[in-house]
Give the backbone structure.
Amino acid sequence: MQRYGPVLGAALAFVAAQAGPTSAHHSLAGYDSSRSVELDAVVSEFHFTQPHPYLILQAPEPGAGPTPRAWRVEMDNLFELTEVGMTAATFRPGDRVQAVGQPMRDGTRKLYLRRLDRLKDGLRYEQVGFQPRLAVRGR
């Protein structure tokens, strides 16, 4: 057994090193899961990038008056979004949307997106558990 100790220890250290960044990357600890923010907004940018696509939305800050502010709205990972049919052309500047998500605990204007409805065509994006869904009404 003593012969295998160093090899087993090295293997465990390697696995732990590989798992550490992955689990940290997928953490939603910065978002407040006990709260939800709803935005009536206009898309100004859509970044269909690794690891998580995100939208920049212009929306009034709830309770802070009518002046639009930029909100960064993070979505699920690119691979899963591609699997459900999302592309870099899914959202365009000027699209009017309603977004619901969990805000950052530190008060910055960032959301982890749970649902987004595009008003012009009935597109709905939902993050249900760990799986995204994308559908257009009537299709």
